[in-house]
Design a protein that fits this description.
Number of strands: 11
Oligomer: single chain
Distance between the termini: 45 Å
Shape: globular
Strand order of the largest sheet: 1-4-9
Radius of gyration: 20 Å
Helix content: under 10%
Structural class: mainly beta
Length: 162
């Protein structure tokens, strides 16, 4: 089968994967990250954007991103940049998300995977493999659910991921 399905164009399929690191606290605050905790029991003053609070980078999160990058043969940047992406979400108390785009912690690399007993993406083969674009550390927004009510709805906000 030809890779070019439409003359002049090549089909490229990409996807974004999120991973929760095994750190004991969030990436930019000291709030815990225990899975399955009750809503809003793992948010601190920094997560809630209270006046006078500033985020501080979690060293363990950067170390884990670097380890992953080395494991997939990626380039680890000597310097990386975090930026604010300003936008409004009801469950984003700060009004911005801290993210990486211009100079992420890790760039490139390859992920090999098995289909049945066969290794795909091994060097020298023509089988598909996942090429990494970048590994960027970032803080996510909170989580919001709506409960229908007889007149409108009620918004339930969980600040665990904020």
């Amino acid at each position: 089968m030809s890779r070019r399905l439409v003359q002049g164009y090549e089909v490229v399929i990409g996807f974004e994967t999120h991973a929760q690191l095994s750190t004991q606290s969030k990436i930019f605050s000291r709030a815990p990250t225990a899975f399955g905790a009750e809503p809003n029991t793992q948010a601190c003053a920094v997560d809630l954007a209270l006046p006078g609070t500033l985020p501080v980078m979690n060293r363990g999160a950067v170390e884990r991103a670097i380890r992953f990058g080395l494991a997939v043969g990626a380039h680890v940047a000597e310097r990386s940049v975090f930026a604010r992406k300003n936008y409004f979400y009801p469950d984003l108390p700060k009004g911005y998300q801290i993210s990486q785009y211009e100079i992420p912690v890790v760039q490139g690399g390859t992920v090999q995977f098995y289909l049945g007993d066969e290794l795909n993406g091994a060097p020298g083969t023509r089988s598909p493999r996942g090429r990494r674009g970048q590994i960027a550390a970032r803080r996510l927004r909170g989580h919001e659910r709506y409960r229908p009510q007889p007149r409108g709805h009620t918004a339930l906000r969980n600040r665990h991921r904020a």
